[in-house]
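Data deposition worksheet. Section B asks for the primary sequence of the deposited chain exactly as it was used as input, without tags or linkers unless they were present during the calculation. Section C holds the resulting structure in token form. Section D is free text for depositor observations; keep each observation to a single sentence. Incomplete worksheets are returned to the depositor.
Section A, Depositor: J.P.
Section B:
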Amino acid sequence: MIVIYNTLIRLYFFAILVASFFNPKARLWIKGRKNIFKKIKQSIDKTQPIVWFHCASLGEFEQGRPVIEALKQKHPKYKILLTFFSPSGYEVRKNYAGADYIFYLPIDTKKNAAKFIQIVNPKIVFFVKYEFWYHYLNILQKKNIPVFVFSAIFRKNQLFFKWYGGFYKKMLHKFNFLFVQNNESKNLLNSINITNVEITGDTRFDRVYSIASQSKKIPIIEAFKQNKLTIIAGSTWKPDEELLIQFINSGKENEIKYIIAPHEIFIENIERIEKAINKKVIRFSQANEQNVLESQVIIIDNIGLLSSLYKYGDIAYIGGGFGKGIHNVLEAATFGLPLVFGKNYHQFNEAVQLVDLKAAFVVNNFYDLDKIFKTLLTNKILLKNTGEISKNYVISNLGATSRILSICNKYLSE
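Section C:
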């Protein structure tokens, strides 16, 4: 099986290399790994102990961030090394101040893994949620370097739990501890004789709660809102936007405000949305505290604002539910908003639970969206109660970070 694994890794690298000639993301993936060992060797201070965190992409980084920052605060003698697999994580967070060193992870070959571990020599390693790289895990185990995965979630359709998944099961046995989100994950791991498992929950709850408690005022949005009921649509894609635009255009009243934060903010997409809306629209980049007063819709045409914008909403529409899956619902839930999203949400445990709690509502078409929005907008008691359920759900799930570090502290103190 190891021969097949190594072959697939090399084929993957070759495919990315070919794609890099015409795909910008693939080009960044290749460029970021050029002379990677030279860059790492020149940067790392070997006199300082290192804790290594690895994240696949941006979403995993947000899960890892509470642990990184809590560990740094409690154990300041350690330097933090942060690696990413994907450009969508590295390129956004390559200047993150909470880490001392930030790099792309060299592709998982036996030679690369050995060289990386030899240069970095981490005292302890954390993988966030996903990413199980055989050669890295194998070298770490051989060198007796403690390695953990946290905020992990396992499902029975994964290779680990198939009769032919023995090679992948071996990877899981190389972790000192697996910190999982739920009881189902623990039971699945126990079923393949992995017992070094602890249910600690999802660190994203700690992260979004921290964001909410530290959120800053955005004067332009305050001026735009004018204390009116506001629907905020976050990380929307075209199918989401078509439903939202239809609702906006069908409304005769001007008492509702709309904030749309598209997932894709390139100019052609922003112009498409603007042209389709028959109400007064303004882009955030062109807005000031005077010209937003007459606007009913504001389009967010930059990144990094969404998690703070939710504080100005009364209802949150979460995009992605008509594609591969919805985006982060917790960022909105922590501000106490009822949630609305499309049908593709079942792979996200928190979304399923919020639907079960009746704090989130699923739409399949415009009829559903129109009915749910109008019900929430006209029933203030329902609006308030569903929002409170959302917020209480987040609060009740806090504490994963402290639970993880309480178990890992003995490794950090040694």
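Section D:
The domain at 34-201+399-413 is CATH 3.40.50.11720 (Rossmann fold).
The mean pLDDT is 94.
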